[in-house]
Amino acid sequence: MKMICNTPILGFAAFSGTGKTTLLEQLIPLLTSAGLKLGVLKHAHHNFDIDQEGKDSYRLRKAGATQMYISSRYRNAMITETPDEEATFEHLLMQFKHDELDLILIEGFKSQSFPKIELRREALQNPWMHPNDENIIAVATDIALDCSLPKFEINDLDAIAEFISTRVKSGDLAGKKQSEDSVAACCDTLSPAFLSVEQGIERILDAVSEIEGEIRVEVDHALKDILAEDVVSNINVPQHTNSAMDGFAIRDEDVSLERFKLVAEVMAGQNYPHPLQLGEAVKIMTGAPVPSNGTTVVMREQSDTFSEAGIDFVTFNGATIKAGQNVRSAGEDLAKGQSVFEKGCKIGPAEMGMIASLGINQCLVKRKLKVAIFSTGDEVQHPSQSQKENCIYDSNRYSLIGLLTQLNCEILDLGILEDDHHQIEKAVSEAAQNADLVLTTGGVSVGDADYIKDVLEQNGNIDFWRINMRPGRPLAFGKIGETPFFGLPGNPVATMVSFINFVEPAIRKMQGEEEWKPTKLRALASESLRSRHGRTEFTRGVYSLNEQGQLVVRSTGKQGSGILRSMSEANCLIEIEPLYAKVEQGELVTIIPLTV
Ligand code: AMP
Ligand code: MG
User: MoaB/Mog domain: from which residue to which, for each copy (predicted)?
Assistant: First the structure.
């Protein structure tokens, strides 16, 4: 079961005094009479208490029950104490029974990204919010307003209710930045912001496709390339039936004879040109062709040789000999005319050897995927410079270069871009024209002042997502022209974890590797691991075999998303799914081994 919110959510953006709660109170009956089953999630800033002093449930809770469930014929309530930290928005949404709801109205949670209707009354003299908030999908006001969003008179509750219920029922819940996606109604379509890891990967893979273009390369330079043609064998491998051992070749029908007359010695690269006669043997080396009718080989260790009247003999001392043993048949590995590798096959070390074994030294492969990368941020400095006050050295670009090199990409390194609108704009559009894929790091978080966001919004079709994962929550993805683009988060670990989860599958698909999936294994947690309900946690881990031969995994310790050492010490990511708030020692977890 995946813990994702699958019910549309909607909130209202308004300054205090606008009358939000009163409006909601009047709107809810209209929405329920339109047939919608409603939930409401409300945030309270103060230490609220819904239970009444003196009641049994109140007393038992105050006595120390951290979860108090009270139930009657008419209603149930669960009161959960949250002494450690406030529950996340995602976690709270998951407490609803989604199969019994059509819509969840949200009160509060201002900083969260989800669709909202802006409410504004002229008398309050507040500023507009919609020009700066992409989550606003409509405006209800008593002020004349010229904007492209749907507009309502703030007191026309019927019209507002009609708008909401039409959107919910039609599944057309698109916000301002929503694309053509026609997925069934869920908070994810209502707000493009919140996505699970799987949803993110699915959308990315839908949006990218295999690149065109192939080149002929030398086999010794073909490691990790993808074949663009079938490789067919023009020869038999091995060429001749040959000996698999150092020993003696005899005729199949002679296996029961006591002794054999030695008529020749055949070294590798030579052959014995005559058929064997009854009782004859040739001494033979591994790999040397056997005589045409001498297709049984007895290994040297089982033999004794001796001479009688100047003639050499060999005996096998009664060893059991099976006709046809210890020979490799011609064409046994690869038969002439056989298709050895199909187009789309990825060339590894064994494939390099096999292709060469066919007498082929060049092959047609997909051209390399060209990936443009740059870092952003005024605080980010090139490692060759002396360190400036309040600055950090660019590490992300180097991690990306490593990751991309492992994936056999051609890298177009555009360096560090200053926070200058014009410079970024020029670099982004040139990168998109010259590369198959563009990657940047930094500047995609909410509230980020970086220019990269503005430039992307104006120049491409880019969605800014919040992935329910840690590290790596913010992620921008889309296209600039026809070129796929990823804006990875700036934190160094988040950059790498996001790359592994989202960029690598896209790259492999673009390179022509079909249906690639990361290797995932299950290992026993050798210590308890922290996580949070509602999001996927990628803890950096070290896996190994324990004395019982079981796969076990521990974390690398401190998991801050800026602590790159946690990645350097890790040999895997531990993937803790959203369903789990914690993993206890001894429980099984999923691990994703890191490529070395
Ligand atoms: P941002 O996503 O731009 O808000 O950046 C998040 C954090 O990552 C900030 O502390 C940045 O300084 C840091 N960061 C951004 N880009 C890089 C980079 N190229 N190398 C190392 N750290 C970076
Ligand atoms: Mg930044």
Answer: 372-509
Backbone torsions φ then ψ of 390, nearest 5 degrees: 65, 20
The domain tally of the chain equals 5
- 223 class by beta-carbon count within 10 Å (0-12 exposed, 13-18 middle, 19+ buried): middle
CATH at residue 288: 2.170.190.11
Residue 410 structural domain:
370-511
User: Are the C-beta atoms of residues 374 and 427 closer than 8 Å to each other?
Assistant: yes
Residue 542: is it exposed, middle or buried by C-beta count within 10 angstroms (0-12/13-18/19+)? middle
Which ligand 1 atom lies nearest to the CA of residue 491?
A: 8
pLDDT in tens, 344-365: 999 999 999 999 999 999 999 9
Ligand 1: atom nearest CA of 379 is 12
Backbone angles phi, psi at 589, to 5 degrees: -130, 160
Residue 104 and residue 173 in contact, taking contact as beta carbons nearer than 8 Å: no
- Ligand 1 neighbours (beta carbon < 6 A): 375, 377, 379-380, 392, 394-397, 441-445, 448, 450, 489-492
Q: Which two tokens stand for residue 197?
A: 């890891």
Q: Which tens digits make up the pLDDT trace of 160-213?
A: 999 999 888 876 543 323 332 323 223 333 333 578 898 899 999 999 999 999
From CA 193, how far away is CA 214, in angstroms rounded?
A: 38
Give me the CATH number covering residue 428. 3.40.980.10
Distance in Å, CA 378 to ligand 2 centroid: 7
Model pLDDT, residue 15: 83
Residue-wise DSSP of 383-399: TTSPPPTT-EE--HHHH
Any domain includes 125: yes
The whole-angstrom separation of Cα 363 and Cα 414 is 31
Please give the number of the atom of ligand 1 that sits closest to the Cα of 494.
8
pTM: 0.67
Ligand 1: centre distance to CA 448 (Å):
11
Which residue, judged by its Cα, is nearest atom 10 of ligand 1? 491
Q: Please report, to the nearest 10 degrees, the dihedral formed by the alpha carbons of residues 41, 164, 188, 535 taken in order.
A: 0
